[in-house]
Amino acid sequence: MAAAQTPRARPAASKTATWRDVTPAAVVLVGGPEDYLGSRAMDRVRAQVRAADPDVEVTRLNASSYEPGSLAMNVSPSLFGERKLIEVEGLEGMNDAFLADALKYLARPEPDAVLVLRHGGGVRGKKLLDAIKAGGWPVVDCQPLKKDADKIAFVTSEFKAASRRIDPDAVHALVNAVGAHLAELAAACSQLIADAATGVDSAMVDRYYGGRVEASAFKVADAAMAGNAPLALSTLRHALATGADPVPLVAALASKLRTLAKVAGAQGSSSQIAKQLGMQPWLVEQAQREVRRWTPDGLVRSIQVTAEADAQVKGLSRDPVYAVEHAVTVIATSVRR
To answer: Which residues cross the membrane (predicted)?
Structure first.
C-alpha cells in the first residue's frame, strides 16, 4: 500500500511582502482596499508562475458565489501534470462554503498549485485571514496612497523600475496633475516612460497633463505663493471658466501653505526636517527657499483667509468664486517681492 502523502511544511513565521516584490507560494493573500495595487500584485504573481511554467492552468473563482468543492476540484493534479494557479477574488464577501473549504485547504495545500486570494478589506473571513498569517504565507497589504509623499515615492519607483530618469520637479508636477487616482497616475507614468526619448522634465509633464483640473489648481497656487497676483487671478479665472470646482482650488492653496508652515517651524538640516515631517528632501529645500519671502504675520494671515475660503466654498457662502479670488489676492499680496 502506498505511503500516506506527507503534508508540505509551511513557513515558520509570518511573511509580509509588497506588491512590487511578492513572489509565488502555495498560498498568497493580497489584502487591502486599493484595487490598483491589488491587481498589480496578482499580475506579478501570475507573470512569475507563467515564466516558470508556461503551460500553467489558470482558474479564477469568486468567493461570494463559490460552490462547495470547487477549490478542491480545481487544485487537484491533472493527468498531464500542469502546475495550477487559482485566483480567488471577492474574499471580503465570501460565503460560508468558501470559508470552510479554504480553511480545510490551508491544512494540506497541493504541492503543484499556487492559490492567490484577494480580500478587499473588512472583517468578513477574519478566521481565514488569521489562519493565513499564522501559517506564514506571504501577505500583501494594499492600502490607498493618500499622502503626496507616498505618491511621489510611487512615481519615483515606477521610473526607477523602468530605468528611466525623471526630474524631482516633474515628479511633483505629475502628482499634482493626476494624483487623485492611483490608476491614472500609474497610466501617466507608463505613457511618459514610453514616449520620453531620454528623461522627463516638468515641461513635458505640463505639455501632457497641464490641462487637468488638479494641475490648474496648483498653477494658481504656485502663482499666488510667488506673489504674482495678476497671473494667479488670470489662471484662476481661466480654470473656473473651463469648469474647475472652487473646492480643489482652495485645497491646493491650503496644501502649499501647510507645507510652508511645517517647514517654517522645523529645526535642523533639510534631510533631518524631511525625515521628521515625512517629506521628500527636495520639497523641504524648495519650501525653505519660499518661506524666506514670508513674514510670520503674512503666513498666518494667508492661512486664516484660506481656512475661511475653504468653509465658504463648501457651503457657507453664496459666492464661492469671490471667496477663492479673495484668498488668492490676500496670499499673493502677503509675499515679499
So the answer is: none
Say if residues 63 and 91 touch (Cβ distance below 8 Å): yes
pLDDT at 80: 66
Q: For a pLDDT cut of 90, what percent of the chain falls above it?
A: 50
How does pLDDT run across 218-267, given as a tens digit for each residue?
888 888 998 999 999 988 888 887 777 788 888 889 888 988 898 888 88
φ, ψ of residue 225 in degrees (nearest 5): -70, -20
Q: What is the rounded distance in angstroms from the CA atom of residue 63 to the CA atom of residue 200? A: 43
Q: Minimal CA–CA distance to 61: which of 25, 35, 96, 98?
A: 98
- DSSP, res 117: E
The domain locations on the chain are 15-141, 148-334
Taking the alpha carbons at both ends of the chain, their separation in whole angstroms is: 91
The full length of the chain comes to 337
148-334 carries CATH number 3.30.365.10: no
Fold of the 15-141 domain: Rossmann fold (3.40.50)
Helix residue ranges, H only, the chain: 35-52, 70-75, 96-107, 126-134, 148-161, 168-178, 182-195, 202-209, 213-225, 229-241, 246-264, 270-277, 281-291, 296-311, 320-334
Mean pLDDT, range 34-47, rounded to an integer: 94
> What is the H or E stretch that residue 139 is in?
strand 138-141
**Alpha-carbon distances, residue 32 vs 137, 143, 160, 180, 286 (angstroms):** 16, 5, 25, 18, 34
pTM of the model: 0.66
Residue 93 DSSP one-character state: G
Half-sphere exposure at residue 267, Cβ-oriented, CA atoms within 13 angstroms: 0
Mean pLDDT of 123-149: 92
Element (H, E) at 84: strand 84-89
Q: For residues 24 and 48, is the Cβ–Cβ distance under 8 A? A: yes
